[in-house]
Description:
This protein is of the alpha+beta class and about 350 residues long. It is built from twelve helices and 14 strands.
Amino acid sequence: MKENYEHFISRNIKAFYKRRLFSPILYLFLLAALWIIFPLDGMLHPMTMAAGDTFGGAYEAGERYVRTTLQDLKFAGYTSEAHGSTRGYFYYTMRDDQCSIILLSPSTCEEGLPTIDQLQVTGRIVKGKETYQELLSSLAKDLDWTKDGIARQLPAYYFSEPDYNPLATRILFVIYFGTMAYSVLYLIVCMVYIRFPVLSPVCQNLVVFGHPTKMLAEAEEELATLPQLATEDMFITEHYFIMTSPYGNAILPIQEILWIYKHSTLHKFLWYHFSISYTMHITANKHVYVTCPKNTKSDIDGIMDYLAEANHNILVGFSEENRLKVQAAQGKPFHIEKFYALLRRRF
């Protein structure tokens, strides 16, 4: 028995947080893949195009988002519509002896100015699709050209200011880097708890009852020496109730427990009821709460009976009378205590 339960609590705390390393690591790999696959770096730092650069050349070089200075812009007489509103106005200009098509936002071109002498603007290089092809068809009719003829004169790419939304870009990167920072921080915290289990919340919650390091060592020693009662993931020693389940870990001094009760959960798929699990709730002094989910009725009944025998002051069973007694014994917590109690319940 001693060999099986040697440092059993610490080992389970480490295993609990090792399992939680997978999700943030996977998410960080996903963020890295998104950064590589999509032009996120270009969105964050658009390339500044030189006077001799062409949109087609920049696109073929992998640049999608660019900042450029445009000169001598002329309104083509056509607009781009989306969802019943005008999203942009088509202009054309000569750039390095080549005619380029420019789509400007309504606010930039003041709802279609006939000409614009010079403009510095940031946008996206877009490969022409339906809207662009419709524009070429309309221009071909205006100039009495064939569609193929005008397609040979104009590049397959055009510059679109509406396709670069600064606000949406900022929101995207706030979410991107914010969730990245959270994942990295969570990884660091988990690794600290793996290296030093006594720093984990399950041990630090004991600070309201005494010294966490000493109490963890005492609980480990009692569990390794002679547990009074053991189920699959719940244990009772001389002085402690211990839980080591996949859903969380807990250590509670038995003399600090005020109230225990259980409730059942029916698990079903569509119309088929396939199992019933039981959850035990423990309320202790200092507004400490522990939930032991997904256990069998026999295991919980055995734990509750033993706890009630070990501490005759423990209230057993859910009732309004017991709730009021516990509330009177605990007293109303301060606001900060309520916050900590909520965090402990969540955990």
